[in-house]
Specification:
single chain, globular, alpha/beta, 12% strand, Aminopeptidase, 6-stranded mixed beta sheet
């Protein structure tokens, strides 16, 4: 990709972000926030919906950058932008969290028990709505800082998950990471939320916080909006396809 093409693409993303932000402000004035949590969702159970998960939260920061920025906040920032874009385009959206919290049940004590409860509640929301489309947003890390690039994980529980993962991977290459050659991967039980979701579901590792260059991008609000737009585009392509 030439520098001119990169500049044009950045300009397009910036324009989209400005338009989305302005529309979100108008939307917020017109409609009360309807973030959906496990056990409080009031949407019709048979209505198609997008379910978004912002990985980690609360006492669980996830992985972090070299200067100590945890992924939980980056995940949340990206997810909230995806949520707002989806709402603007008329999708019904449920989210596991819209602020820095763990979603474990009240009264559960001990970090391990809270984490188990947190994951069970996220999974409950992922499986709550028939024919929902589910996306969990995360960041990656590795001991060797040379690795970078988004990677998609999917489960064999729903045959459509692999197609969803492929769409997201292709859009990351087209929009943000032309040199990304990472393969989409079938997940195992260690990725609990993705593995046990019966709806089409993907866990999107948007980049490596262990890579200094990529971490710097992922901490940047403008780049987070570009990632969000890429994820939103993938959702639209998958649902419309």
């Amino acid at each position: 990709m030439t520098e001119k093409q990169k500049s044009c693409r950045t300009a397009v993303f910036s324009a989209l972000a400005v338009l989305a932000s302005a529309a979100v402000i108008h939307y917020a004035v017109e409609k009360i926030d309807s973030a959906v949590y496990v056990n409080t969702a009031d949407m019709e159970a048979d209505r198609k919906i997008i379910v978004l998960d912002s990985g980690h939260g609360g006492m669980d920061g996830g992985c972090s950058t070299a200067d100590g920025i945890p992924e939980k906040g980056i995940n949340l920032s990206i997810m909230l932008t995806v949520r707002d874009m989806c709402r603007l385009y008329g999708y019904d959206v449920a989210v596991t969290r819209d602020r820095d919290i763990s979603v474990h049940d009240s009264g559960v004590e001990g970090i391990r028990n809270q984490k188990v409860s947190d994951m069970e509640n996220r999974l409950e929301l992922f499986n709550k709505y028939p024919d929902a489309v589910c996306l969990s947003i995360h960041q990656n890390t590795f001991t060797d800082p040379k690795y970078s690039g988004a990677q998609m994980f999917y489960s064999s529980a729903n045959p459509e998950s692999e197609r969803f993962a492929a769409i997201l991977k292709d859009l990351f290459v087209q929009n943000l990471q032309p040199d990304n050659t990472r393969e989409t991967k079938l997940c195992g039980k260690e990725l609990y939320l993705c593995y046990y979701c019966t709806n089409p579901a993907v866990m999107a590792e948007c980049g490596f916080l262990s890579n200094p260059e990529e971490a710097a991008k992922l901490k940047d609000a403008a780049y987070q909006q570009q990632v969000a737009y890429t994820l939103f585009s993938g959702l639209g392509s998958f649902i419309g396809g």
